[in-house]
Amino acid sequence: MKTYHLLLILHKWYWLGNNVVESKEFLKLILDSISEHIVVINELGDIIFVNRSWQTFGQDNNCSCDVQWRQQNYLAICESAAKQGDEFGIKALAGLQKVINSQQQEYYLEYPCHSDTESRWFLMRAVPLEYQSQRYVVISHLNITERMRAEQQLKMLAHIDGLTQLANRRHFDNFFEQEWSRCLRLKQPISIAMIDLDHFKLLNDNFGHLVGDICLKSLANLLTQFARRPSDLCARYGGEEFVLVLGNTHSEQAYQLLSQFMTQLTELHIEELHNQQLTVSIGLATLVPGFLDNATTLIDMADKALYQAKETGRNKLVVAQTQTDIVSKMPLTRGIE
Predict the structure, then answer these.
(1) How far apart are CA 80 and CA 321, in angstroms?
(2) Which CATH class is domain 3-145?
(3) What does the alpha-carbon distance between residue 259 and residue 251 come to, in Å, rounded to a whole number?
(4) What is the pLDDT of residue 85?
(5) Which of 179, 122, 182, 114 is nearest to 148 (CA)?
(6) Distances (CA, A) of 254 to 170, 251, 286, 309
(7) Rounded CA gap, 77 and 305, in Å?
(8) What CATH number labels 158-335?
(9) How many CB atoms lie within 10 A of CB 296?
(10) How many CB atoms lie within 10 A of CB 150?
């Protein structure tokens, strides 16, 4: 039975075995047993009912209003997300208003809801409900993570760099845009590192392109060990240049991580190089996205810092402290010689 049909018979007679029973509590228990997250709002958007799955999800994900949902306005929450540039907040608000205004009978929206430890997707469904001359909207959120993971696996095949098996430039562009929006919505920092393999042309000239490919693949394999969360991504940016995205990561945290990467790179042994050591130059930048910021600003900051690392001797990690470093070109240099 569909969830909104269960709400439709709330307060009415129904059969339980051979007995006729009238029990709000029994119907509430049924709704609480459903894995879908269910919320009911009135025409103004005020929340008047949530089931246990909804409450549990709020508690498990540190929602500040998880114990006072009936004092919240669902439309206001969507509007707040929309004002922060969240495309899914914009779509949800527009779709719900159409259902409330009887412009359409139901509305569907698939959206991501990732945590720091897990990738998750949900399907939102909104349908109208009329009871005792009052109009409501029943909204359910169904976890579709398994299906989305399967679909993403297929899409990934078209977004993988053939040589290194890392994400390619197209995948990076899409991921970075989504992660930027997520960090903007949640007011979290996002760090990005531009990584360039030092003297790659000379390496190809001395050892040949096959050895050059081995070096790129070895570096890529090591880099994947530093992008383990759903909010992280390492990608081949082009040629011998790589990029590492670290969502919800402060500058100092990213610096420590990249320092570990550079240290482990010095321990990497590639037989074909005859004891020659690989080194990289890295430009690191961090921002807490704001309404007036642009995602390309962070890439520019990291790129300028990378340029500084290469111009001042290579084998260095340079940190762009603020956006003004793009103009001054004087980021803080921390070298690993």
Answers:
(1) 30
(2) alpha beta
(3) 12
(4) 82
(5) 122
(6) 23, 5, 9, 17
(7) 38
(8) 3.30.70.270
(9) 11
(10) 9
Condensed to tens digits (0 to 9), the pLDDT of residues 92-114 reads 999 999 999 999 999 999 998 88
Which amino acid is residue 303, in one-letter code?
Answer: D
Strand order of the sheet with strand 232-238? 232-238, 241-247, 190-197, 280-287, 316-320, 332-335
For range 141-162, the mean pLDDT: 85
Side chain identity at residue 285, one-letter code: A
Pairing type for strands 316-320 and 280-287 reads parallel
**Main-chain phi, psi angles of 112, to 5 degrees:** -85, 150
Give residue 64's identity as a one-letter amino acid code: S
For residue 324, count other CB atoms closer than 10 A to its CB. Answer: 10
Rounded Cα–Cα distance for residues 201 and 199 (Å): 6
**Residue 47 contacts residue 73 (beta carbons within 8 Å):** yes
Tokens encoding 296:
């390309």
pTM: 0.56
Please write the tens of the pLDDT for every residue from 231-289.
999 999 989 999 999 999 999 999 999 999 999 998 888 888 888 889 999 999 999 99
Which residue matches tokens 């980021």?
Answer: 331
Domain boundaries for CATH 3.30.450.20 within the chain: 3-145
Shortest CA distance to 184 belongs to which of 86, 321, 82?
86
Question: Which residue, 198, 191, 195, is CA-closest to 337?
Answer: 198
Q: Which segments of the chain belong to CATH 3.30.70.270?
A: 158-335
Would the pLDDT of 141 be above 70?
yes
Residue 264 in tokens:
């482990």
Catalytic residues: 240
